[in-house]
Specification:
Largest sheet of chain A: 7 strands, mixed
Strand content of chain A: 15-25%
Shape of chain B: globular
Number of domains of chain A: 2
CATH class of one domain in chain B: Alpha Beta
CATH architecture of one domain in chain B: 2-Layer Sandwich
Helix content of chain B: 25-40%
Structural class of chain A: alpha+beta
Number of helices of chain B: 10
Structural class of chain B: alpha+beta
Oligomer: heterodimer
Largest sheet of chain B: 11 strands, antiparallel
Helix content of chain A: 25-40%
């Protein structure tokens, strides 16, 4: 998983299986539920940083493995590894039931702007994964329809999605998310811990609070932790300097917070804190706009 | 008075409730001897370095060490024979001493009893539950006050609905402003039912306080307590049975705890490696009063100010749903919000108290729409105080 695009896709698919306002509910209506497969499937390469996302439905007797292509191409070896997998392998390696794994397929989810190259890649693959392409309007099934007609109909002619409405809280950031995404996810937690009287916070503690932590490989975890540290160090060196500093693997409160004492908070300090954070978010937001990675616009 | 155990505390509180204490001291009874007993329900949050519960004695010492509180109320903590029962006693503003009795039998949900004057007790409790103290008042949604009212005979109710924090919308007939009223006496139940039937008032009928006459199962036919229960988890009792009052307090503590535990168990978002699932689910507050100005709504909700006391900055840009990770200043936990025109989506990260959700929802009922519902992913009500 990488980039804001990948996060948006993961949160969309998880959200569609969970329900709630802001996301289409048709996958949930077909009985699909999100599952995370720790370490992927047997024969999978070991380069994964996070568990593999699968959508499984008892009533459709089907599991869909989701592979996200963040760039113009996909790694054919990774997709072809599914060809060596049997339903028995899937059941023995995961907690998915016999009903859920009676049939299974793979969907490659990419960006519409990479349509041509992704179509080429998919055409060359023996297992013929479905190709779902995302643009600002939604998700379209571009090639290789699903065996399940009802599932195909979800994405054809197109599934309208308001990307800005997709809940971000399932997976709030990943190791290479833009700084603004990481900052939005961790700063409130940092301030909350200061308020509780924790003058020094281990960065690993902040990482452990992330829902993805339990679903990350040890390499993924190290990268998550390191990313949080980098973003906080950057913030501490600039807009958030009056509030905290980063020293090694610790975030330390400054500005009147002594160990064991709660952070002094009054309307004036709250206003100053809000101003610092707003400036930080504005700068990081601008950086993301320049990178142009977001589907939400 | 410094108490040694719960039996002595109950005896002391009953003697103040009935006026027997003053009458004994003076040698004769007199009108006005009886003093109401006030009880506050609070939630203690946070853990020690090893993740265990913080020793209540240590936490209490820290809470009372705050400069402003210390200056006005230099209370000393006295242990009792029961390890979770403390007396806090000290002079108030250099004058007469006040005593507060803190029962931490439940290490997370504390109860504080006192016979001190209301404004003194409210001020001390307010300082004890200040931002960052790790202690927060429990907030009761309408459903809990209704449940409480059903435990005895309803004798009165206060209704308060205040939309002024959201500014003026003079062009709307059901716009902002406030409405409050009090109903006292035997016909309160019928009066409330009649008001509830009036469609134009339904979005504003939110309870802020109920008064009920409650009788314990034991203690004789004359034993009773007249209890005022307000939405901020405060009970004030008059009458002659401390047993009835303590039972009522305990019932409300248990009901709150059960609801908060249920929210955390079912809704908190966390990943379980073994089962390969992200557990928990989003909650949605559905309101029947759509909001046109999401930016304004977010400004009010996340400014850090009362009544919501949430602090956060929404992501930039025009969007149909504003997403904010906000800090709940009462519990210092974070909540994920998605604010739409006619819904508020709430994600509860692991480690944040379900009490923060309950408080937010109770505030929505009192300040946005009294008919609001808190629903889970399947559209079922999250709030359920039925035993």
């Amino acid at each position: 998983m990488s980039s804001t695009f990948a996060l948006s896709v993961v949160n969309l698919f998880v959200g569609m299986c969970r329900g709630g306002p802001g996301v289409p509910l048709r996958l949930r209506a077909l009985g699909y539920r999100d599952h995370w497969l720790d370490g992927g499937l047997p024969g999978d390469d070991t380069s994964r940083l996070y568990a593999l996302l699968a959508l499984a439905s008892e009533s459709m007797r089907h599991t869909l493995f989701v592979e996200i292509a963040t760039g113009p191409r996909i790694d054919p070896a990774r997709i072809e590894s599914y060809a060596r997998t049997t339903a028995v392998d899937v059941r023995s390696a995961t907690s998915l039931s016999r009903n859920q794994t009676e049939t299974w397929g793979v969907a490659v989810v990419g960006r519409a702007k990479h349509r041509d190259t992704l179509l080429e890649c998919v055409a060359e693959l023996g297992i013929r994964p479905a190709l779902l392409l995302c643009d600002r309007a939604g998700v379209t099934l571009e090639a290789n329809p699903f065996v399940q007609t009802a599932l195909t109909e979800v994405f054809r002619p197109s599934l309208a999605v308001d990307w800005s409405a997709v809940p971000r809280c399932w997976v709030s950031f990943a190791h290479d998310s833009p700084s603004i995404v990481v900052a939005e996810a961790v700063l409130a937690e940092v301030i909350g811990r200061f308020l509780r009287g924790e003058a020094r916070i281990e960065i690993s503690k902040l990482a452990r609070g992330h829902a993805l932590w339990q679903l990350a490989t040890s390499r993924g975890r190290r990268r998550l932790e390191s990313r949080i540290g980098d973003v906080l160090a950057d913030a501490a060196a600039r807009e958030m300097r009056p509030w905290f500093r980063v020293s090694g693997r610790m975030v330390e409160a400054v500005g009147g917070t002594d160990a064991g004492q709660e952070m002094p908070l009054n309307p004036r300090s709250m206003w100053r804190l809000t101003r610092s954070q707003r400036r930080l978010f504005q700068r990081l937001g601008k950086e993301r706009e320049e990178a142009g990675d977001s589907l939400a616009g | 008075m410094i108490v040694d155990d719960r039996a002595q505390l109950a005896e002391f509180l009953e003697s103040r409730l009935t006026g027997a204490y003053a009458a004994r001291a003076r040698g004769r009874p007199s009108a006005g001897d009886a003093i109401p007993v006030k009880s506050y329900l609070m939630e203690a949050r946070g853990s020690d370095r090893r993740g265990g519960a913080i020793d209540p004695r240590r936490r209490l010492a820290r809470i009372l060490s705050e400069l402003r509180l210390r200056k006005q109320f230099p209370g000393e903590v006295h242990d009792s024979r029961a390890p979770e029962l403390f007396t806090i006693r000290g002079p108030v503003r250099g004058g007469k001493a006040a005593s507060l009795y803190l029962d931490c039998r439940d290490e997370r949900f504390w109860i504080l009893h006192t016979v001190a004057r209301s404004h003194t007790a409210d001020w001390i409790v307010g300082r004890m539950t200040r931002i960052g103290s790790g202690l927060a008042r429990l907030t009761f949604p309408d459903q809990l006050l209704e449940m409480a009212a059903g435990l005895g005979k309803l004798r009165g109710a206060a209704l308060a609905h205040d939309r002024r924090p959201f500014g003026d919308e003079p062009e709307r007939e059901d716009g902002n402003g406030f409405m409050s009223m009090q109903i006292w006496g035997g016909g309160s139940t019928h009066a409330l039912e009649a008001l509830g039937r009036e469609e134009r008032l339904q979005s504003r009928i939110s309870l802020s306080r109920v008064q009920l006459r409650y009788r314990p199962d034991s203690g004789g036919p004359e034993a009773f307590v007249l209890a005022d229960i307000d939405m901020e988890g405060r009970l004030e009792a008059r009458g002659n049975s401390i047993e009835a009052h303590l039972r009522l307090v305990e019932t409300l503590r248990r009901a709150s705890r059960r609801q908060i535990d249920a929210i955390e168990l079912r809704q908190a978002v966390r990943a379980g490696r073994r089962e390969g699932r992200i557990r928990g689910g989003l909650m949605t507050v559905r309101t029947a009063r759509p909001t046109d100005d999401l930016h304004r709504l977010c400004e009010v909700l996340f400014s850090g100010a009362a009544p919501f006391r949430l602090w956060g900055i929404p992501g930039g840009g025009a969007s149909a749903v504003m997403q904010v990770r906000a800090l709940d200043l009462d519990t210092t936990g974070v909540l994920d919000f998605g604010i739409g025109r006619d819904f508020i989506r709430i994600g509860l990260p692991q480690g944040t108290s379900g009490g923060a959700v309950l408080r937010f929802f109770a505030n929505v009922q009192r300040h946005m729409d009294a008919r609001a519902r808190l629903l889970d992913e399947d559209g079922r009500d999250v709030i359920d105080f039925r035993p």
